[in-house]
Hints:
By secondary structure, the protein is α+β, with helices and mostly antiparallel strands. It contains eleven helices and eleven strands. It has a seven-stranded antiparallel beta sheet with strand order 2-1-11-10-9-8-7, sandwiched between helices. Strands 3-6 form a two-stranded antiparallel sheet. The longest helix is centred in the N-terminal third of the chain and has 16 residues, at 6-21. The model has no long low-confidence stretch (mean pLDDT 93).
Amino acid sequence: xxxxxxxxxxxxxxxxxxxxxxxxxxxxxxxxxxxxxxxxxxxxxxxxxxxxxxxxxxxxxxxxxxxxxxxxxxxxxxxxxxxxxxxxxxxxxxxxxxxxxxxxxxxxxxxxxxxxxxxxxxxxxxxxxxxxxxxxxxxxxxxxxxxxxxxxxxxxxxxxxxxxxxxxxxxxxxxxxxxxxxxxxxxxxxxxxxxxxxxxxxxxxxxxxxxxxxxxxxxxxxxxxxxxxxxxxxxxxxxxxxxxxxxxxxxxxxxxxxxxxxxxxxxxxxxxxxxxxxxxxxxxxxxxxxxxxxxxxxxxxxxxxxxxxxxxxxxxxxxxxxxxxxxxxxxxxxxxxxxxxxxxxxxxxxxxxxxxxxxxxxxxxxxxxxxxxxxxxx
Length: 378
């Protein structure tokens, strides 16, 4: 007997079709499943699309870092400079502006976005310097060189003292390359996408896949997140391109495989296993309680609640009691800036994934979250 109510899943499909018919999206794809596999999926276009998943690249890279921890090759308390020497002597902005030597940055700081780094599209002083340094502007810049440019820019605050969403996962990706002695593309394929059979998830889907990549919609008409910047910052056919915080292309079905694998690992029955149950439980606790409430910088007109009602673990947002979204404490996941989104809830044995390409984030992902919980039979 299905754990999901068929009529409510049909209501979900009708609702998603309506969001496209109203003009909120050009297309949508969605899936709901449990540890046994996909239970329900739908799409508003006849064929499967290939999506720029932006920051949904981060959980995949974070899982690889946690795998290295499981193998005894890294510890969360290790300084980043243990593998990336340029992070030995960092500077930090003071309230008055002059720079001074920063405290040591650790792998834990990077995974929890408490490292003091920022993003070039944000409004703080570190962000402005990242923008001037062309961090993320050119796909032709090797990942290792990006990490060096980031290290040369003063931190916004001392590591460990605040939460600020940032390029931290790009630094982690460079660290992974150094630790593994291989390009990130190869490491991702060997450790995650290959074992899970995610054959259409990669940094380079190639020219043949171009017709399957939906156009980006939304109000960000300039800068690194604009559709016009894609050739330089998010190419589909550059064999050398890889980043830790964005860059992967994926399909609904592929990312559902990743979400299901995390769900099974969290419940102790992963096959193939990405992470042990104990390590994943540790990774999906709230590690930033001292920084609560955590926030993410959004456009002033956005209706996106951001991280309201959530904490942050080791590469994942983690639901906390209360908050504006229907969820269960301990559910975890992440999203991409063009409204690709996923959640994993071990307590209810459920995962959900949504794929869109809209920078304005009209909110179909939040609809899916509420409607997937509403479709549970018990």
